């Protein structure tokens, strides 16, 4: 790439249409990446880094890391947003659309098929045994997420205290999740001003090895930000985001399950800081206890299905919507209702990701080194540890015990298990999963596969007995 192609004087139009790599080549690469995106955001980001930074040398490591830092500031699945951002750098708007769509498409198709199989055969002994093995594995996988995020993020006692306070606010006092996120961001900002020693700066990244990348760390100047561009993208993005929801509200009524799901998951798309694990406790609480779309045990099974499919884990909301719409179809056929609910929920969950990237990417250089933004993100990340821990406790209780009661004492809101309804099989498989994850360090898919086999084996022995 010549220096003239990357000068700051490039017009927005030329930057928008220039292809750093052939578009067809990029599409084939994004499709190949989409089939490998198992194991949560850490695994997905690792796949992109290996393919784009190390193997193809399309983008430099520091540029890749800076893009990831920007995506971490946004609500929504950071790995998918990173794909949109890098796709935009490589091939403009159409590159971002292709990368982001392909990143989630295999997971959408796979989870739709698995949701339909669950609804059709979920009560059979084989499927029951399968989920009896998967659910304990999910508990351990979420616990591993707590450990990984905590070890990396809680670098000072003040941040540990913030994580514990966030856990208590959710688990003991039922504080709304968005409020926890907002307060954590404020505390992070205050810590940076009043006690900056509590916030350790990120370690510097090593320089790239190998031939220079096509997108160097300091050479590419993409579209220039402008008020006209921002207003155009914002207007189009909001129209695309809201039009299907408005159409559903007109056709099925404002009180239908489809409108309710569309509004609810549109809201969660704006507060999904810290990845899927962070917001799932809030989604589970509302979907199970408030709306009654599915049971607590089914929420665990939905996450198990999402863990076994490629794409962001937040895709579990598709399973939630599928079951909720199937069970309350209104005037529609239950299967048509389930498909509509699932696709509408997927749409309102992921369209904002494209909007955030296309709207904010040209301003990304202005965020470089911004201490206030970094401090707020550090506070949110610390709170996310407590949020994920709350999710682990929630899943564990509903996996290990058949009955869990809600109790209220003054400001306290607790979930207490009925000890007489303990599930020995679930406890045993959980222990096995702990060994596989923490001692043997097996991959997520391998752990899920072995636990599924254990659950099927127990179901088979029980049926024979």
From TrEMBL:
<protein>
    <submittedName>
        <fullName>Chromate efflux transporter</fullName>
    </submittedName>
</protein>
<feature type="transmembrane region" description="Helical">
    <location>
        <begin position="338"/>
        <end position="364"/>
    </location>
</feature>
<feature type="transmembrane region" description="Helical">
    <location>
        <begin position="97"/>
        <end position="120"/>
    </location>
</feature>
<comment type="similarity">
    <text>Belongs to the chromate ion transporter (CHR) (TC 2.A.51) family.</text>
</comment>
<dbReference type="InterPro" id="IPR003370">
    <property type="entry name" value="Chromate_transpt"/>
</dbReference>
<feature type="transmembrane region" description="Helical">
    <location>
        <begin position="447"/>
        <end position="464"/>
    </location>
</feature>
<feature type="transmembrane region" description="Helical">
    <location>
        <begin position="263"/>
        <end position="283"/>
    </location>
</feature>
<feature type="transmembrane region" description="Helical">
    <location>
        <begin position="421"/>
        <end position="440"/>
    </location>
</feature>
<keyword id="KW-1133">Transmembrane helix</keyword>
<keyword id="KW-0472">Membrane</keyword>
<keyword id="KW-0812">Transmembrane</keyword>
<feature type="transmembrane region" description="Helical">
    <location>
        <begin position="159"/>
        <end position="192"/>
    </location>
</feature>
<keyword id="KW-1003">Cell membrane</keyword>
<feature type="transmembrane region" description="Helical">
    <location>
        <begin position="304"/>
        <end position="326"/>
    </location>
</feature>
<dbReference type="Pfam" id="PF02417">
    <property type="entry name" value="Chromate_transp"/>
</dbReference>
<feature type="transmembrane region" description="Helical">
    <location>
        <begin position="230"/>
        <end position="251"/>
    </location>
</feature>
<dbReference type="InterPro" id="IPR014047">
    <property type="entry name" value="Chr_Tranpt_l_chain"/>
</dbReference>
<feature type="transmembrane region" description="Helical">
    <location>
        <begin position="376"/>
        <end position="401"/>
    </location>
</feature>
<feature type="transmembrane region" description="Helical">
    <location>
        <begin position="127"/>
        <end position="147"/>
    </location>
</feature>
């Amino acid at each position: 790439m010549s220096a003239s192609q990357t000068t700051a004087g490039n017009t927005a139009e030329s930057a928008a249409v220039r292809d750093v790599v052939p578009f067809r080549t990029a599409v084939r690469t994004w499709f190949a990446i989409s089939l490998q995106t198992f194991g949560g955001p850490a695994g997905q980001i690792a796949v992109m880094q290996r393919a784009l930074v190390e193997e193809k040398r399309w983008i430099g490591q520091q540029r890749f890391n800076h893009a990831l830092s920007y995506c971490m500031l946004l609500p929504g699945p950071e790995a998918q947003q990173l794909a949109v951002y890098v796709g935009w750098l490589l091939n403009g708007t159409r590159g971002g659309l292709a990368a982001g769509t392909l990143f989630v498409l295999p997971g959408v198709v796979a989870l739709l098929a698995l949701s339909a199989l669950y609804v059709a055969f979920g009560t059979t002994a084989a499927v029951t045994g399968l989920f009896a093995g998967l659910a304990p594995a999910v508990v351990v996988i979420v616990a591993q997420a707590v450990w990984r995020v905590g070890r990396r993020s809680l670098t000072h006692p003040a941040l540990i205290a913030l994580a514990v306070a966030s856990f208590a606010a959710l688990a003991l006092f039922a504080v709304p999740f968005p409020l926890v996120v907002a307060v954590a961001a404020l505390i992070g900002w205050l810590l940076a001003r009043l006690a900056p020693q509590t916030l350790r700066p990120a370690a510097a990244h090593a320089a790239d090895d190998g031939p220079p990348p096509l997108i160097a760390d300091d050479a590419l100047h993409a579209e220039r930000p402008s008020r006209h561009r921002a207003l155009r993208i914002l207007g189009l993005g909001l129209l695309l985001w809201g039009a299907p929801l408005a159409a559903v509200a007109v056709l099925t009524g404002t009180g239908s399950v489809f409108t309710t799901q569309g509004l609810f998951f549109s809201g969660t798309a704006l507060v999904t800081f810290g990845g899927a694990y962070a917001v799932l406790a809030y989604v589970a609480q509302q979907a199970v206890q408030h709306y009654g779309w599915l049971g607590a045990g089914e929420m665990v099974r939905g996450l198990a299905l999402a863990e076994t499919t490629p794409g962001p884990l937040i895709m579990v909301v598709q399973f939630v919507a599928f079951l909720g719409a199937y069970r309350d179809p209104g005037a529609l056929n239950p299967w048509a209702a389930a498909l509509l609910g699932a696709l509408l929920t997927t749409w309102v969950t992921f369209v904002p990701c494209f909007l955030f990237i296309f709207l904010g990417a040209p301003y990304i250089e202005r965020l470089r080194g911004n201490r206030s933004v970094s401090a707020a993100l550090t506070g949110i990340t610390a709170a996310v540890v407590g949020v994920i821990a709350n999710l682990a406790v929630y899943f564990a209780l509903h996996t290990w015990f058949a009955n869990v009661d809600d109790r209220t004492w003054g400001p306290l809101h607790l979930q207490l298990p009925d000890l007489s309804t303990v599930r020995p099989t679930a406890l045993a498989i959980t222990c096995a999963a702990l060994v596989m994850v923490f001692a043997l360090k097996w991959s997520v898919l391998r752990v899920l596969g072995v636990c599924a086999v254990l659950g099927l084996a127990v179901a088979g022995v029980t049926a024979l007995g």
